[in-house]
Amino acid sequence: MSMWNRKNSVAIQSYSAKAGKPEADENKRYIRKQNSYRSISRSSSIDSSASYSDSYSSDEDDVSPRERSQKNSSGGSDFCVKNIKLADFGRREIEIAEQEMPGLMLLRKRNCTDKPLEGAKIVGCTHVTAQAAVLIETLTALGAQVRWCACNIYSTQNEVAAALAEAGYPIFAWKGESEEDFWWCIEQCITADKWQPNMVLDDGGDATHLLYKKFNGTFNTLRGVVEESVTGVHRLYQLSKQGKLTVAAMNVNDSVTKTKFDNMYCCRESILDSLKRTTDVMFGGKQVLVCGYGEVGKGCCSALKGLGAVVYVAEIDPICGLQACMDGFRVVKIDMVVKNIDILITCTGNKHVVTRDHLDRMKNGCIVCNMGHSNTEIDVASLRTSDLTWEKVRTQVDHIIWPDGKRIVLLAEGRLVNLSCSSVPSFVVSITSTTQAIALIELFKAPPGRYKHDVYLLPKKMDEYVAMLHLPTFDGHLTELTEEQAKYLGVNKNGPFKPNYYRY
Ligand SMILES: NC(=O)c1ccc[n+]([C@@H]2O[C@H](COP(=O)([O-])OP(=O)(O)OC[C@H]3O[C@@H](n4cnc5c(N)ncnc54)[C@H](O)[C@@H]3O)[C@@H](O)[C@H]2O)c1
To answer: Biased-composition ranges for Low complexity (predicted)?
Structure first.
């Protein structure tokens, strides 16, 4: 074992964490800006996945959280959530999540005495769900102070945000934030009395971006940034390339414990859930086009194939295209099938993969949604023209009606459909959250010089540790290498078991 690995493996023994599970909720009335497009029945919402929190709807809920003065039962008001009265329900959601996040809970248990994050002041910008709450409470149990906001304007579970606020966490998030609210919430996490953040846990790069652009002094003093998304990581590498990255950053997105579990297994389950909840669609025999055959695309395709859908794949990369072919999918250009498909799903991380021209040519009733990171993959803006009518039929479900009566079913306005319209399996979030927690500890505890102003991947030994924390759930028992076998393979008996270039 190299010196470097030995150090890491020792450090890792003392980590502990916990995790949580989210349950998607739907806003009964989310606020949409009045645009030039026509909206026939915005209020006729049939909420297919109404959560318990909907029963709390009242006139109060129509007031922006920023205009309401709320206090938790301890008199604290350093938070901004939809409705603090939802806290009890949110707490129960968090407790359910804890059950399904065994690895993170084990990390918490093992390290809550050592407190490896003592002194860490973390700005968190992630989806605010029950699983995230388990992460937040784990980081706190490990000694960190946090201020937290949402990385997506639709994905916050209001009751969970309320439970966190009730527990005294400075949390600034609610479902249905406007773009302006979104940036305001992030700013509340960066700036506060007697608060100088030294770490960032980001999903999408927006908190990092705001710190870099508007609070550069603080940005330059950060001990580290941990980033989860493709987009956020891409921005970090760009900064690094330009010589403008002044902190060490950990790319959690490309940790094998994220790409192989969160992107693939999570999306494999949640794509079906999202489509079912929003449209009640039956999959057998339906023609589905999946754009992008990366980890997310592979998960979606495998789930749809399992239910008997006829799946087409659009790809730009010959390797992924060949993989799709070998997995039994037809690789096509969008133009070749766009007129016939029943469902289109984007998962490319790219922009304008689906254009107005494609949408014009789709058949009546085609369902269009995005599993990629943001709302850029489908050119939704091109649908906001005076010739088209928008009819809101359910929460997160819009019918876009062409002059000849043709309707396209657009989900979540082109934003991440699974996070907006379904639940995400807590177990995979546990794996990602444990990876994030360990990345934060690694950056925070690293001796000076281990990490320079660059973007790093988590050492493989730590990825293996994350997986190890989750194996007991399945009563999984690993085989131990003999000395002879370890020597034969040229690896340490205790790992890492694979070279860094190994792809799993
Ligand atoms: N919905 C979720 O829960 C969830 C989870 C993880 C990641 N994501 C997001 O999903 C997106 C994809 O993630 P991934 O891990 O699969 O990435 P990936 O890089 O493995 O896969 C993306 C694929 O899209 C292909 N692609 C790019 N442009 C294309 C185009 N114009 N047409 C067809 N194919 C194109 C690429 O060649 C690549 O194979 C990212 O934006 C990521 O942030 C979403």
So the answer is: 36-56
Residue 78: count other Cβ atoms within 10 Å of its Cβ.
17
Give distance in angstroms: CA of 350 to centre of ligand 1. 7
Tell me the average pLDDT across 344-362: 97
* Predicted local distance difference test score (pLDDT) of residue 149: 98
Closest ligand 1 atom, residue 353 Cα: 31
- CA 294 – CA 3 distance, rounded (Å): 35
- d(C-alpha 119, C-alpha 191), whole Å: 17
Which residue, judged by its Cα, is nearest atom 21 of ligand 1?
294
* CATH 3.40.50.720 placement within the chain: 264-421
Report the pLDDT value the prediction gives residue 155, as an integer from 0 to 100.
87
Hey, which CATH number is domain 65-254+446-467, 3.40.50.1480, 3.10.450.50, 3.30.230.10, 3.30.70.2390?
Answer: 3.40.50.1480
Ligand 1 geometric centre to CA of 359 (Å): 20
Of the candidates 149, 148, 151, 152, the residue with the CA atom closest to the CA atom of residue 122:
148
Confidence of residue 6 (pLDDT cuts 50, 70, 90): very low
More confident residue, 25 or 125: 125
Residue-averaged pLDDT of the chain:
89
pLDDT for position 50: 32
Instruction: Say whether pLDDT at 24 is over 60.
Output: no
Dihedral angle, C-alpha 343, 349, 351, 353, nearest 10 °: -30
What is the spatial distance between Cα 493 and Cα 501, in angstroms, rounded to a whole number? 19
Structure tokens at 48: 């297919």
pTM: 0.82
Tokens 């390339």 sit on residue:
241
In the block, which residue shows the tokens 């319209």? 421
Question: What architecture does CATH give domain 264-421?
Answer: 3-Layer(aba) Sandwich (3.40)
The neighbour count for residue 493, using CB atoms within 10 Å, is 14
**Extended beta strands in 335-457, E state:** 343-346, 367-370, 389-394, 397-401, 407-411, 455-457
Count Cβ atoms below 10 Å from residue 75 Cβ, excluding itself. Answer: 6
Instruction: Give distance in angstroms: CA of 36 to centre of ligand 1.
Output: 31
Cβ(314) – ligand 1 distance below 6 Å: yes
Collapsing DSSP to helix, strand or coil, 309 comes out as coil
User: In the prediction, which pLDDT does 423 show?
Assistant: 82
Q: How far apart are CA 305 and CA 287, in angstroms?
A: 10
* For range 458-470, the mean pLDDT: 96
